[in-house]
Amino acid sequence: MNSRRRIYLMRHGSVDYFLEDGTPVPPDDVRLNGEGRRQADAAGALFAECGVQFDRAVVSGLPRTVETATRVLAAQAGAAPALDVDPALREIRSGRLADIPRENIRDAFLGAFRTGPGIEAQRFLGGESVGELLDRVLPSFERWLADASWSCLLMVLHGGVNRALLSRSLAGERAFFGRMEQAPACINVLEVGDSEAIVRAVNLAPTQWLHERERYTTMEKLLAQYQRISLPV
User: What pLDDT is recorded for position 231?
Assistant: First the structure.
């Protein structure tokens, strides 16, 4: 039996996509907030406690993935790998919120992260479609699966991208399970053998294993922030 290699697929830590007045921050510029830094550090401490040693690390290149990965790797005993930047693994691209009619705002925020017929045609905030996301990220993922240079790979990416990669791993084909939530700094565990990925664990949040403080998805909370609505506990 061939030995399997391990991928720890993370989402970046928590960020603020909107200013206090509701003004959107350019998505390519957002950095981790205080909670996001705490989450990334907690993930790094967990990996170190469990003796995980990464020999490769992949990020999308957006600052929030770079900072999360840097903080995670800072806790590794011994030399940490340099970051491999793969721009094809950037998050699904949004359009301009100002161009979306008010009556379509809710569906623009929540529509892409659903599951069902026609999902590939669904556009994220009026921007890139799910199908276009799959066209972009799946070939890159296949290349990383086929790359024999790593044994334990850290990938720090994004909520939409992670859904695409996990869906491919679970279904064995092109799929998108939009309802598979990805918490900030969550850890997904995959094993790779013969270029196929097996999903061992999904959405492990290092600062709240049971998601005990969560009742809403990331996109529901972002919609509330944009509309300045307080969500009930």
Answer: 65
